[in-house]
Each structure stands twice: as C-alpha cells, then as structure tokens.
C-alpha cells in the first residue's frame, strides 16, 4: 500500500499517516459561513482537501473514506446580513449554500460524504456544553456559557504553539464583564426575540461558532478521527478552541490526530478576505469566462503550505497547458491507474505541484492514456470540467485567413474599417489577435467563446 506522509501542524513535522481504522478513514474540514458568495481564497481549502480526499479514496478505497465539511448557518455575520438586506435568514443561508456547491462543483470538487448544517445539530451542541459544565470546564454567566481556558491550561495553545499570554496579545480577545478570564470564549449566548434562538438550560439562545464544529465532528466522526483541515487563519482561535472543547468533553478520545492547514491565497502580500475588501468571488471569475479547471490547475501549481497569488499570467499558462493536454488525450481511454510517480508526489504531503511536473513529463513522452488517468487523480482532464475546451473542432484558420485578406484589401484601399471590425469581434470573443508581416495568428484566451466568434 502507498505510504502517505502528511505535515501535522500539531507536531510541526511530516509524519507517516496511519489511520485509526483503514476501513473508515475520517476527515473533517471547516466549511463556509453562508452569508455571501465564496471568494477565491475560500476555494483554496476546498480544492486542497478535495485532492487529499481523492488520494485517500485511491489508497484506502472509495468506500473507506468519510469526509465531512460543514455549513455554518448560524452566525452573527449572517444575522447582520439579514438585518442590512431586510431578507429572511433562511433564504440567505439556503441561497448561499447552493451558490457554494455550484461554484465548488465548477472547480471539480467532489461533494463530501456529509455536509452538516449547524442548525441541524443544536441538541448535540447543547449536550456537549452540558458535559463541559459538569466537568468543570465551562460556566454560566448572565445567560452566556463560557469555556474556562484556565481549566485546561495544559492543553490550550499547543496546536498553534503559542503561550496564553501571546494569544491574548495577538488576538482580538473580547473582554466582557461576565468572563472570569479574558481568554474564555463563548459556547452559548442569549438571543433577543428578533434573533435566531433555541430553548436551552440557559434560556433561549444560540451557539458560539467553535462549538458547532466540535459537536458536528463528534456526531459524525466520533471522539477520535484522523484528519482535521482548514485554512491556517483558523488555527487560532477556532481550532485551538475546537480542541479544548472536544478534548474536555470527550477525554476518552483525542479528537483529530493530524491537523492540516492550507496557506492563504493573497493579494499583494495580504490574505484575500472579506473584511479587507480585497477579494473577488469564484463566481466572478467563472462569469468572466475563466474555466473552473483553470482555477483548479492554478491552485494545484503551488504547494498548499505556501502562500500564493492569483495572476492572469498563471491563468493563461494553465489554460494553454490544459488545452494541449486535452488535445493530446482527446478520444483516448484512460489507463487503468495513475502513474506511480504522480501518486508518490501526492502521497508526499500533497505535493500537487510535483504531480503536475510528472504530468508534463508524461505529456512530453506522449503517454496519453497514463497522462489522462494521472491528471484525473488531481481532478483535472475530467469530462465534467471539459466543456470550455471544446473548441478543437472549430477551425481558427478560416478566421485568420479572413482577417489577413481584409488587411491586404485595407492596405490597398486605406480603409481599415473592416479590419477594425473583425479585430474587435475576435477580441470580444476572447481571442488574442497577433498580426505580423508573417500573417495573422489567433490565440484563444481564458474567456474564449466560440458562439461569439461565429457571430462575427
Ligand atoms: N485568503 C484565503 N486563502 C485561503 N483560504 C482562505 C482564505 N480566506 C479564507 N480561507 C478559508 O476559507 C474557509 C472559510 O472561511 P470563513 O467562512 O471564515 O471565510 P470568510 O468568512 O470569508 O473569512 P474572511 O472574512 O477571512 O474572508 C476557511 O477554511 C478559511 O481558512
Ligand atoms: Zn471548524
């Protein structure tokens, strides 16, 4: 069996992955808070952990992996959005959830086995909070229930490797009169009548964000499971708090054994985020005609533990490569299995960039069947993602000849109107127009639209 090595944030080393139960490898990844379209940064963990999911399915068998990714559909950001827009919360969360699934589907992400919505697990959250209170790890104050960080000093901060003092200094720790310690965090808070709320032993209220993941992971994966993933922006406080809650409520287990964190998608050195306003959505890019497969390829070209930028140059390069590979594999049956070197690269802490380098080698050797099987391990060159590239049947040379002829006529007549019209039409159809003494060359760009071209 292939040996998988994964970098574990908890130990800061690359470790041999040994699942608790090889018949049921279990992974939890923090999902989106559903109040707005996913930005490109939000898609990075989705693509990264999709590749890990595919690798685990390859190695342990498709029926022996359980992947859970939640939807946070109760959160103050959602409440604020509903208030600002005058819309119903349920309408916003349902719409945003569907957008997320559509956009991530367009990037070739497989759907996880379970996609729990937080609001469907409120009784489990309440039960977990009760256990924490009984164990002396949480206390009630003014309708709130807070986790007492002091009750678990020995474990708190281990994941992110910070001292409690550093954490207080580095984070926006909310100081509130009802907290015994500023580090204590909310498990449950009271809801006024205009906010979503559930009856609980502490009155009508709603859960804090962190307890949602702990309760859903416990319910669906048990007290110990294999992998927990998310962006490294979630390491503190979210993951640190998840660990504290889960380990204190279920000391018989060890919650997640391997913690994996993807680095951030950046814009000019800063994390792409809603709060900074430096974002564009996946939907925007798709609408602009950037194929989902191209976005996926660009993500996979950088190792998940390195920060990366989205650039148009990367997208153009990815598109050219994918076009070439799609042409090379057109009409070919994929080989029975991926190239061992591709699987080995992925098994080495998800070295997708290394796997892509292997794909280039296979392409240069003309090994189309193995290239196809190997690319599909990465979710590339799949039939579902291929519609954008179906321009092979369209012969650009007739359009090139037409422009060349128009140019010749224009040089004689000094009337360039037709040349300008054709050029503008080609550009609008997403083609790059290269004109030189040697002739005319048309190169399809990311937004290439065959229908628009036919209409010119
Ligand atoms: N720029 C980014 N690059 C990579 N992953 C990111 C980025 N921004 C958010 N994520 C990840 O997206 C997932 C969803 O996070 P969350 O719902 O907190 O996003 P958000 O509310 O849009 O956050 P933000 O305000 O930071 O943009 C998390 O796993 C998070 O780590
Ligand atoms: Zn989480």
UniProtKB/TrEMBL annotation:
Monomer. Belongs to the class-I aminoacyl-tRNA synthetase family. It comes from the Bacteria. A motif ('HIGH' region) lies at residues 32-42. The gene is cysS. This is Cysteine--tRNA ligase. Residues 341-389 form the Cysteinyl-tRNA synthetase class Ia DALR domain. It comes from Lutimaribacter marinistellae. The keyword RNA-binding does not apply. It catalyses: tRNA(Cys) + L-cysteine + ATP = L-cysteinyl-tRNA(Cys) + AMP + diphosphate. A motif ('KMSKS' region) lies at residues 271-275. Keywords: Aminoacyl-tRNA synthetase, ATP-binding, Cytoplasm, Ligase, Metal-binding, Nucleotide-binding, Protein biosynthesis, Zinc.
């Amino acid at each position: 069996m292939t040996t998988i090595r994964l970098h574990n944030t908890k130990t800061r080393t690359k470790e041999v992955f040994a699942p608790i139960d090889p018949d049921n490898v279990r992974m939890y990844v923090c999902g989106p808070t559903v109040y707005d379209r996913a930005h490109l940064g939000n898609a990075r963990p989705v693509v990264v952990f999709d590749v890990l999911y595919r690798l685990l399915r390859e190695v342990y068998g498709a029926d022996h992996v359980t992947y859970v990714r939640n939807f946070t559909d109760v959160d103050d950001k959602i409440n604020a959005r509903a208030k600002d827009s005058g819309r119903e919360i349920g309408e916003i969360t349902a719409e945003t959830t569907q957008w997320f699934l559509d956009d991530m589907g367009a990037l070739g992400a497989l759907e996880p086995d379970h996609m729990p919505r937080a609001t469907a697990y409120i009784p489990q959250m309440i039960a977990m909070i009760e256990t924490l209170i009984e164990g002396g790890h949480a206390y009630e104050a003014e309708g709130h229930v807070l986790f007492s960080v002091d009750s678990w000093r020995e474990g708190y901060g281990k994941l992110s490797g910070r001292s409690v003092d550093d954490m207080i200094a580095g984070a926006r720790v909310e100081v509130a009169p009802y907290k015994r310690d500023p580090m204590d965090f909310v498990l449950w808070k009271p809801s006024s009548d205009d906010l979503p709320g559930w009856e609980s032993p502490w009155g009508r209220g709603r859960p804090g964000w962190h307890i949602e993941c702990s309760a859903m992971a416990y319910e669906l994966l048990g007290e110990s499971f294999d992998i927990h993933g998310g962006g490294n922006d979630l390491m503190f406080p979210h993951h640190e708090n998840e660990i504290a809650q889960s380990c204190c409520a279920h000391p018989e287990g060890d919650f997640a054994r391997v913690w994996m964190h993807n680095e951030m998608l950046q814009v000019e050195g800063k994390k792409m985020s809603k709060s900074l306003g430096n974002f564009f959505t996946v939907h925007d890019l798709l609408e602009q005609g950037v194929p989902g497969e191209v976005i996926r390829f660009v993500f996979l070209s950088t190792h998940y533990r390195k920060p990366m930028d989205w650039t148009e140059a990367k997208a153009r390069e990815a598109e050219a490569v994918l076009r070439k590979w799609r042409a090379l594999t057109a009409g070919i049956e994929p080989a029975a299995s991926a190239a061992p070197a591709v699987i080995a690269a992925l098994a080495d802490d998800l070295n997708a960039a290394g796997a892509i380098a292997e794909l280039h080698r296979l392409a240069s050797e003309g090994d189309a069947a193995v290239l196809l099987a190997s690319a599909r391990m990465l979710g590339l060159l799949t039939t579902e993602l291929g519609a954008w590239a179906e321009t092979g049947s369209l012969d650009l040379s007739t359009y090139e000849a037409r422009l060349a002829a128009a140019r010749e006529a224009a040089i004689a007549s000094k009337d360039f109107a037709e040349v300008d019209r054709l050029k503008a039409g080609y550009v609008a159809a997403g083609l790059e127009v290269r004109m030189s003494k040697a002739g005319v060359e048309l190169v399809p760009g990311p937004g290439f639209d065959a229908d628009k071209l036919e209409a010119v």
